[in-house]
Task: structure prediction
Amino acid sequence: MNKIALVAKREFLSRVQKKTFLLTTILLPLLIFVFYAMIIYFSVKTEDRFTIAVADNANILNNKLENKKDDINFTIVHNTTAAQLDEQLQQKKCDGYIIIPADYDLMGRDSLQLKSGKAIGIMTREKIQKLLNDILEEKRLMALNISKAKIDSIQNSNQLQFTTLGGKKETDTKAGISYGVGYISGFLIYIILFIYGTMVMRGVMEEKTNRIAEVIVSSVKPFQLMMGKITGIGAVGLIQFIIWIVLVIGLQMILPLLFPDLLHHTVNTPMQPGAMQAAQAANNSGAIHSIMQGLNDVNFPLIIGCFIFYFLGGYFLYASLFAAVGSAVNEDPQDAQSLLLPITMPIIFAMVIMTKAVNDPNSSLAVFGSLFPLTSPIVMMARIAHGIPDGVSIMQLVLSMGLLIAGFLGTTWLAGKIYRTGILLYGKKPSWKEMWKWAFRKS
Amino acid sequence: MGKILELQNLKKYYATQKAVDDISFAIEEGSIFGLLGPNGAGKTTLLRMITGIFYPDSGHIVLDGNTFDPANDIIKIGYMPEERGLYKKMKIGEQALYLAQLKGLSRAEAMEKIKFWFRRLEMESWWNKKVEDLSKGMSQKLQFVTTVLHEPKLIILDEPFSGLDPLNANLIKDEIYRLAQQGSTIIFSTHRMEQVEEICDHIVLVNLGKKILDGTVEDIKQQFKENKFSIRLKEVPGYTTHDSFDVIEQKANTLVVKIKEGYSSNHVLQYFIGQNTTVDAFNEILPSLNEIFIQLVEGTKATTRAFQNTQS
Result:
């Protein structure tokens, strides 16, 4: 036991003390943050104001045209000819103009022309179109004597509400947020398995090719060496992740300070599918407030607790397999590639099930995926996000955790045997058959 | 003196061959013991069993009077394998400290011993260097220090001099003698016979997984002598044939003769004295270990060790 700690300590310190560790741990989130901030900065700051002159010859607008968005500006002009407007366009007094002909039929299918000095970008076009359509739609309704209040009551979309057996109200926002949280945490575990798994594998390969393994195993059992390595690297991963999470949360708090008008933009520019659903739901009823409400509904202590459990469980389960592969190959990284395939397959498979489970946490595929130890670390996160009895029953959660622990003991035992033989064997790459023999022979 | 290590009928079979096939021998405490054998003879497997890396399929290992228990006896053994290496990126001082702690020394104890050895082998200025900055000879020296640091009773050195210049080789050799005098036992594995002849008291020769020779260097040489003598004469008589010997070689005034069965060196001397020449020198030629080694190992094929009846 003491020796595992010694090995783990070395593995941990030798990685944490490296300059590259500090660089990736601190610079990477900063870099992502700067990148993110720049995108937001450019999307918020559209300095091009677009002025459109509207010659309302039909007088359907009643001289009234609200300028809701500050980047598109309508001005109503009177008694101007197309030639005069062309001139204005050339003098850059306006960026474009629309002439509404005197005989314009509001209810008809006549289309209007917008003439501009230069080509208009697609985003601006859409905005102009939407603004103008809204205005015209309202005018049409008014012409038909339908009031705005009536329209609103017709268009009320909040007619179906979802409740579960537990009696809890399932808002769209909450479902969307659960989707997002489940997806993100499942994906993080997927990344963790790969990053730190290959780190373990490379560490083992380094020990083998440097021939230090033989020196070490004369004082430490191969199993202790392997466990020490896995524990040490696991600790590195945990520390790195905690630093990342703290940094991300910290930076997220700074973001609104830098861009005060950010809020409605972030809501309208969804980053992932989960957020999109949430945002759409939010649009219908009190935007930000509803998201906050949804976030409050998500059981974060449970999710973070489970995340750490499945992070560690999944990592330990796979890391020993990665270590076994590292011990079996020699210098050639290509050998490792072919041996890695059977390990990466279930991880990718789990990822696929996860994308299903996040939509439908109680489908039989999701239940299977969240119980089977090779896929459960990723799939269960998707179900947990939907909360405890809704997404997953306590029975299943406990069973899944138990199976994961059993699975990790199993793979570690198996990998330990392969590792013990492989680490001292030089020469050609062993076949699967040989590795199978190493794993199951006595003593 | 007692026996530090006894091997009784050790066997270790791999899937395709018998790596160690029923080997027994004993090593006296405080001696320098040579384990010899060609490549692939089973030496490394044997050493790995003695160091507790492998478990024997059958047989017993008795270390220092008790059955060998890898978990607790590791501190009594220092092993420098042939395939050896160090962490390239680690500082030398930390590396030595780490390896010593893995053996079971406390940090303070390890520190004290490392300082002692570094001073002794003039390595003090290396402490903060990294292994990748060392030459091969330097890292070899470091490896030796990490092997003997915890003052093991049994030190196992597999090809300890490979890559060392004569100066450093002598330095290590002196340390080996000193350790042996202080009561440590040294197992020395190599195929450089001249080193064995110089250093070892007792040798065992292994080939194809079996022990084929066991004894002190002197006894073995006696056992394999071919009754060859070299005679240097003032002048060589015209006629040098006699019933008692055959001349094998002649170089100027020196003859190499082989004494025939039933005769002794006195017969030869009497003959030459009778020829009226002066005998300047007369001495026995003992075979070198190298010759014995080649004689015993040559012609045996590694395949003979493979299981013959794998099909059945």
Remarks:
- The first helix of chain B runs from residue 43 to 50.
- Chain B is about 30% helix and 30% strand.
